[in-house]
Specification:
Blueprint: E1 3-8, H1 13-23, E2 31-37, E3 41-47, H2 50-56, E4 66-72, E5 87-88, E6 94-102, H3 105-114, H4 124-139, H5 143-153, E7 156-164, E8 170-176, E9 181-184, E10 189-192, E11 204-207, E12 212-217, E13 220-225, E14 230-231, E15 235-237, H6 253-259, H7 261-269, E16 273-274, E17 279-280, H8 289-294, E18 297-302, H9 304-321, E19 324-329, H10 330-333, E20 345-350, H11 356-367, E21 371-376, H12 382-386, E22 389-392, H13 405-425, H14 430-451, H15 454-464, E23 469-474, H16 478-493, E24 496-501, E25 518-522, H17 529-541, E26 545-551, E27 563-567, H18 575-593
Helix pairs in contact: 3-4, 4-5, 7-13, 7-14, 9-13, 9-16, 13-18, 14-18, 15-18, 16-18
GO molecular function: glutamine-fructose-6-phosphate transaminase (isomerizing) activity
Subunit structure: Homodimer.
Main location: cytoplasm
Length: about 600
């Protein structure tokens, strides 16, 4: 959630760190701060946006070649200047930035107070740096050793970077459960929560593993594990273009990412699908497709939009591969003592690859003998390292907090997995297999067709921007689409919205229907078409306002609905890849018309890296 940026080297640190914090704004935050070594260790921090911090620093001396910066999303302590990071140690010789939660901070704090420590914030992070310094002073050890000893005592998740006023050529970082990447340059090093603040300066990075401690001193990087054993840092090349994290002329990242979906879906299939030759290759699953075809049970764990992608996958796997699939909220999975056996497969889905609840679910399932398959977007993130195998979505960086291209990319990859497994298992006829591949290759052009309805969707958005509630309804494959459409609307426009299976309407939601209630139907021509037509008639009989996503050429539903948006015809299993596009656009335009911050919705963070 929080954003970390730090630098040590020959450049001026302040402009680099401030720019990096702005690149991390998409992660969600309520305050920001920076620490620099210039005539002492100086911390500057401010509640609000990074631009608010910049304004208070206009007259400060900010020249320094070492610095740490942070954007905070409040967990312990309300959002204010005092609770913002960085935090000083008791002597004010050390400063820390921290992403994560120290679960046992309260007991540590009580012991430190007994020793005379005074705390100025309500944060667990200030306790952490006081604790590190206390160890250092009581043992006489080096700072890096004090950090390592503290790591053995604290419980929870953390990514930290520490600066020492007495050692201006040193930065120390550590990680457990929260992401931290180190950019490697020529005698300079960059620290960040992800690669977006770094890519402008270097594409050579080291991803710290859990319980690892990194020390940069005198232009050299050393990595040790928690047992003080030297590690050989693996330097990876990040395939990320600077243009990919810029708006590229769009008003918002979310709109840019909606319009990127023809390309991102195609990128998901590039090198994997060749319909002309009847080829479907998933290199990351090569050694596991046979085992997947033989398993009797797949459990999908995910959160938010990724959970909706998992629901689509449930329908596809069960229909094509005839394997029992269960879809679990990762946040609940670990707390209900789930029944997982050897031979079960768990598919973990996460855009960032850092979702804390999903990582915890993976560890629980692994401990019970399950085989774990990961589906995520960010190369080098924690989930690919924690799983037995998997597939990247290759959607490119997604900056908007509300996931758009991540959803369609996840559904694409999951569909490829289901088709591959079904073919291996023999439950998919060769003609259907070939047809699905051809249909998949046409999805990007069909998304482009739907994007051309943008102006019509703007008009619909204008009609409903002041609505207080929405209901989204769909059946079969379109039920998860309804859930995702409702989530997008409430995430960015703050309008209450609920998604339901259309068949459940008469079991409660129909009581809400009146002339003020907009009801969005995903009403494409599929196996449930006639049933959905009946549901639309029920809503119209109660004077509800109907917005319907329909198949191109439909003559019936347009006579009943108040507004219709057409999408091209396609195989039923692939409809979610296209039907979700107009719902993303509808949510976007309603939010813009309401004056909402589309890319940074209130209270939300892009990557939920703490529980």
């Amino acid at each position: 959630m929080c954003g970390i940026v730090a630098y040590i080297g020959h450049r001026e640190a302040y402009p680099l760190i401030i720019k990096g914090l702005k690149r991390l704004e998409y992660r969600g935050y309520d305050s920001s701060g920076i620490a620099l070594l210039n005539d002492g260790l100086n911390i500057y921090k401010k509640k609000g946006k990074v631009k608010d911090l910049e304004e208070v620093l206009l007259k400060e001396n900010l020249s320094s070649h070492i610095g740490i910066g942070h954007t905070r999303w409040a967990t312990h302590g309300e959002p204010n200047d005092v609770n913002a990071h960085p935090h000083y140690s008791a002597s004010r010789n050390l400063a820390i930035i921290h992403n994560g939660i120290i679960e046992n901070y309260s007991s540590i704090k009580k012991n430190l107070i007994k020793k005379g420590h005074i705390f100025y914030s309500d944060t667990d992070s200030e306790v952490f740096i006081h604790f590190i310094e206390d160890i250092q002073q009581n043992t006489g050890c080096l700072l890096e050793e004090a950090v390592r000893l503290a790591m053995k005592e604290v419980v929870g998740a953390y990514a930290i970077v520490i600066m020492d006023a007495t050692n201006p050529s040193q930065l120390i970082a550590a990680r457990k459960g929260s992401p931290l990447v180190i950019g490697v340059g020529e005698k300079e090093f960059f620290f960040a929560s992800d690669a977006t603040p770094i890519i402008e300066y270097t594409n050579e990075v080291v991803y710290l593993n859990d319980y690892e401690l990194a020390v940069v001193r005198d232009g050299e990087l050393t990595v040790k594990n928690i047992d003080n054993i030297l590690q050989s840092p693996y330097i990876q090349t990040v395939e990320l273009e600077l243009e990919a994290i810029e708006k590229g002329g769009y008003d918002h990242f979310m709109l840019k990412e909606i319009y990127e979906q023809p390309r991102s879906v195609a990128d998901c299939m590039r090198g994997r699908v060749n319909a002309d030759n009847g080829l479907l290759v998933l290199g990351g699953l090569r050694d596991y497709v046979d085992k997947l075809a033989k398993t009797k049970r797949i459990v999908i764990v995910a959160c938010g939009t990724s959970w909706h992608a998992g629901l689509v996958a449930e329908y596809i796997f069960e229909e094509l591969a005839r394997i029992n699939v269960e879809v679990e909220y990762a946040s609940e999975f670990r707390y209900r003592n789930p029944i997982i056996k050897e031979g079960d497969f768990v598919i973990a889905i996460s855009q960032s690859g850092e979702t804390a609840d999903t990582l915890a679910a993976i560890e629980l399932a692994k401990s019970k003998g399950a085989t774990i398959i990961g589906v995520c977007n960010v190369v080098g993130s924690s989930i690919p390292r924690a799983t037995h195998a998997g597939a990247y979505t290759h959607a490119g960086p997604e900056i908007g907090v509300a996931s758009t291209k991540a959803f369609t990319a996840q559904v694409t990859v999951l569909a490829l997995m289901a088709i591959a497994v079904a073919r291996k298992k023999g439950t998919l006829h060769e003609d259907t297999f070939r047809r699905l591949l051809f249909e998949l290759e046409r999805i990007p052009s069909k998304i482009e067709t739907v994007l051309k309805t943008d102006e019509k969707i703007k008009i619909i958005a204008e009609k409903f921007k002041d609505a207080r509630n929405f209901i989204y309804l769909g059946r079969g494959y379109n039920f998860p689409v309804a859930l995702e459409g409702a989530l997008k609307l409430k995430e960015i426009s703050y309008i209450h919205a609920e998604g339901y299976p259309a068949a459940e309407m008469k079991h409660g939601p129909i009581a809400l229907i009146d002339e003020e209630m907009p009801v969005v139907f995903i009403a494409t021509k599929d196996s449930s078409y006639e049933k959905v037509v009946s549901n639309i008639q029920e809503v119209k009989a109660r004077k509800g306002k109907v917005i319907a996503i329909v198949t191109e050429g439909d003559k019936l539903i347009p006579t009943m609905a108040d507004y219709t948006i057409e999408i091209p015809a396609m195989h039923e299993a692939l409809i979610p890849l296209v039907a979700t596009i107009p719902l993303q656009l509808l949510s976007y335009h309603i939010a813009v018309l309401r004056g909402c911050n589309v890319d940074q919705p209130r209270n939300l963070a892009k990557s939920v890296t703490v529980e």
